[in-house]
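Exercise: predict the structure of this protein bound to adenosine-5'-diphosphate.
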Amino acid sequence: MLRVGILGGGQLGRMLIQAAIDLDLRVKVLDSSPDSPCAGIAHEFVVGSVRSPEEVVRFAADVQLLTLELEAVSVEGLRQVEAQGVRVAPAPSVVELIQDKGRQRTWYAQAGFPSPRFQLWQPGEPIELPFPLIQKALQGGYDGRGVQRVTRPDALWPQRSLLEAEVPIAKELSVIVARSARGEIKAFPAVEAVFHPTAHVVEYLRIPAELSPAVEREAQALAEALAERLQVVGLLAVELFYTTDGRLYINESAPRPHNTGHVTVKACWTSQFEQHWRALLGLPLGETRVHSFGALVNILGPAGQYGRPSFPKLHQWLQVPGTSVHLYGKAKSTPFRKLGHLLLLAESPAQLHERIEAVRAQLEVQVVPNERTA
Ligand code: ADP
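Solution:
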């Protein structure tokens, strides 16, 4: 039985474990939170920091393969683990590149991947781009935190950052692509994300995206070219912008399973999680085709509330035909935190839309404040 380690114990790790069971892998997880979604599910759960090189090295001492479910890990730790003869995927150099949005954007542009005009900026330097522009913190942002649209110079956060020209987005797309240890590459069909108007969290997304076959092919080809160029092993989730004037730009990518890929679990022949393991183990990659119209609706923590979540509408959700639920087992809800998701299948886009609306009308989450978080 192969012993694999996962850095990070969140919901992505939890779903990686579900898929790992089918391949009879023995999974060990490192996370700083003892009540994270993987605790109690992994074969072995270690409480510790994924950002500490020493703790990563100690954790990986008895695994044969190390992977991750988030990029914010110690690259130094990954390098040391690799130097000790353990297979590490994605490679430390890829993780290092992805960790910094400035470095990532510079790399895409230099490698010839379509990028908005951009500038690495620090306070005091002249701004070379027209307003409005998009300002991005170099590190640590997620779900839109650390990103702002800026209309005037005095609204810029006074920090080193990546500035990008605003592109006229018609659709936000994501293509999950896998590259196996043997070099085989396969992209899933593009997923189309629809965002919350203010919180910048995906509200729902659907597969297949509504795109012409030519644009669909171009999006998949870009993602495959990126995975090849980066020599990624495992998954690469590539976020793309499709603009009102018909262009595709690469926004950013992540070398791991991705929230936008959950819909593959039910709507595609192979799930992103199974595909990640197949890729890491050098097994043949699975068919990525869509067999139904599918959607994902995130179940998010309600605004302004902190505490233990519960889901009083579970019964109603599951009454909608074609719907299944995945609860992440998070002990604490915070505003807009991802607590779970619903997957919906349908036989036509219109039916899918109806079902999305039916569950979105009753996405209630109850939060019981507890003493520590009230
Ligand atoms: P995060 O890592 O938090 O998801 P992103 O870099 O994806 O941050 O940016 C968050 C959102 O900001 C995107 O989903 C998109 O809506 C918008 N955005 C980012 N870059 C641009 C851009 N160059 N032009 C227009 N909108 C952008």
